[in-house]
Design brief:
This is Phenoloxidase subunit A3. It holds the Pfam family Hemocyanin_N. By secondary structure, this protein is mainly alpha-helical. The protein has helices at residues 43-50, 69-72, 85-100, 104-115, 120-133, 145-148, 156-160, and strands at 26-29, 56-59. Strand 1, helix 1 and strand 2 form a beta-alpha-beta unit. The protein starts with 25 loop residues before the first strand and ends with a helix.
Amino acid sequence: MADKKNLLLLFDRPTEPVFMEKGRAAVFDVPDKFLTDRYRPIGNEVQSRFGEKAEQRIPVRDISIPDLRLPMSLPRDAQFSLFIPAHRRIAGRLIDIFMGVRSVDDLQSVAVYARDRVNPYLFNYALSVALLHRPDTKGLDLPSFAQNFPDKFVDSQVFRK
């Protein structure tokens, strides 16, 4: 059974691929079919390269993935806002998907698959809502949005210094 705290690692470095190191030397062992088209041909090399120094390997179960066409319709580089009705519908669908899976293991698998495919702001919002409302993920201390997307709160010139 998956540790529900591993789900928090999915918030770490939201624009990097999910197979890269997260947190303090943790790596998700992603099934090849979960990799995006860009990384699928070189999946073994990429995953072994980024997992060399991992202290914790988190297995991801290979399950059938729900239909993510609607959540994937928002481009990854687009801005996300709940004030836009279409974005609200998309977010609602992704939340329903996350809420509808049976176990923490299945939630982890679906979230790992979705993370590299849907808009990062949408993903963060939907997973946060699901983790707060699912009975089996209660009590998790979710990271602040400002931690994951500091560029939304701090002028980019500060990062250069």
